[in-house]
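Weekly sync, protein design subgroup
Attendees: M.S., D.O., the rotation student, P.L. (late)

Item 1: inverse folding check
M.S. brought a backbone from last month's batch and wanted to see whether the design step gives back something sensible before we order anything. D.O. pointed out we never logged the input encoding, so this time it goes straight into the notes. Structure tokens as presented (56 positions):
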């Protein structure tokens, strides 16, 4: 029983920091992806305004 609890504790400790690492990297990637999409949308808007596109 003691061995099982020890293995369980090692397992939990090993994956506790891994989840935090994955979440941090996921949020960084999501942030850069969002900035990229906003930049593309702003570029498209400015391009349409500069070419005289009728919005209405």
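Designed sequence read out in the meeting:
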């Amino acid at each position: 029983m003691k061995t099982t609890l020890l293995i369980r504790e090692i397992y939990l400790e090993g994956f506790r920091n891994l989840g935090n690492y994955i979440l941090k990297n996921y949020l960084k990637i999501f942030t850069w992806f969002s900035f990229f999409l906003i930049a593309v949308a702003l570029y498209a808007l400015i391009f349409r305004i500069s070419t005289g596109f009728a919005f209405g």
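Discussion: The longest helix spans residues 2-50. Residues 1-51 form one domain.
Action: P.L. to compare against the previous round before Friday.
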